[in-house]
């Protein structure tokens, strides 16, 4: 059931600049939370914001860009941070906690996001590609720092392995019904019992191969 849209009086002052954009993005957020992305239209957002479609189109070319702008407006900032705590384990934990905070900021929208991930839509493809690129880039920086500190053997992991910790967070929220905010013990469990052993196994195999070729001995990884 669609809730009643707020109506503006003809005596209301005309909204301009930041005030107008704030109203448009709040309307887009409320609309997508209420009806979902599939049923959202530029017209429905304009109606909710008590303005015209032309006002929306002057700022955003289509509904995908409008909804993404609403995401950023609701949870401002760069999104996923690339931490530098001084240790590999600390960096992984900090990264996952940053992601968890981001999900918590998007409560109300998260069900919409996860529903879109399961669809072959323009928004789902865009969100998935952007999230995977962001997480992969952050994890690459973390792995490179760990190698420079001597905690890991130099070498690359596959993009899928780099994304694994965050993919597990998403999976738990979608299928495991994890509470929001995500419990910190779950983040520690992903890090200590799944991701770090997997990285150690892959990096260790890689080092062992190099060491055997050189006639040397492989060193331990993930200290």
Q: How would you summarize what this structure contains?
A:
One of its GO terms (molecular function) is transcription cis-regulatory region binding. This protein is mainly α.
Walk me through what this model shows.
The protein is an all-alpha fold and 223 residues long. It has 2 domains: 17-74, Homeodomain-like (Arc Repressor Mutant, subunit A), CATH 1.10.10; 88-214, no CATH class. The chain has 9 helices and no strands. Helix 8 (159-175) runs antiparallel to helix 9. The protein is elongated. The N and C termini lie far apart (55 Å). Mean pLDDT is 77; it is low at 8-12 and 205-221.
Notable characteristics:
223 residues, mainly alpha, Arc Repressor Mutant, subunit A, 2 domains, disordered C terminus, HTH-type_TetR-like_transc_reg
Topology:
Layout: H1 17-35, H2 42-49, H3 53-57, H4 63-74, H5 88-105, H6 110-117, H7 122-149, H8 159-175, H9 184-214
Helix pairs in contact: 1-2, 1-4, 5-7, 5-9, 7-8, 8-9
The stretches of 5 or more residues where confidence is low (pLDDT under 50) are 8-12, 205-221
What is the averaged pLDDT score? 77
Query: Which H/E pattern describes the elements?
Result: HHHHHHHHH
Major β-sheet annotation: none
Structural class estimated from helices and strands? mainly alpha
Our estimate of the beta-strand percent is under 5%
* Helical proportion, percent range: 55-70%
The strand count comes to 0
Radius of gyration (Å): 22 Å
GO molecular function, one term: transcription cis-regulatory region binding
Pfam families: TetR_C_11, TetR_N
Protein name: TetR/AcrR family transcriptional regulator
Keywords: DNA-binding, Transcription, Transcription regulation
């Amino acid at each position: 059931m669609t809730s009643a849209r707020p109506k503006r009086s003809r005596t209301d002052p005309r909204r301009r600049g930041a005030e107008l954009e704030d109203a448009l993005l709040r309307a887009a957020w409320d609309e997508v939370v209420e009806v979902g992305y599939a049923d959202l239209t530029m017209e429905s957002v304009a109606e909710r914001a008590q303005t015209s479609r032309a006002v929306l189109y002057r700022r955003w070319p289509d509904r995908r860009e409008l909804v993404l702008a609403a995401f950023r407006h609701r949870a401002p900032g760069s999104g996923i941070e690339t931490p530098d705590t001084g240790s590999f384990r600390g960096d992984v934990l900090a990264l996952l906690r940053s992601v968890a905070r981001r999900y918590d900021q998007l409560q109300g929208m998260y069900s919409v996001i996860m529903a879109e991930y399961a669809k072959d839509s323009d928004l789902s493809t865009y969100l998935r590609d952007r999230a995977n690129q962001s997480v992969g880039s952050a994890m690459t920086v973390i792995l490179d720092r760990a190698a420079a500190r001597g905690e890991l053997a130099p070498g690359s992991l596959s993009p899928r392995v780099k994304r694994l910790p965050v993919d597990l967070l998403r999976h738990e929220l979608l299928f495991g019904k994890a509470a929001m905010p995500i419990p910190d013990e779950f983040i520690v469990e992903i890090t200590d019992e799944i991701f770090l052993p997997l990285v150690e196994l892959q990096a260790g195999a890689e080092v062992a191969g190099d060491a055997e070729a050189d006639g040397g001995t492989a060193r331990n990884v993930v200290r």
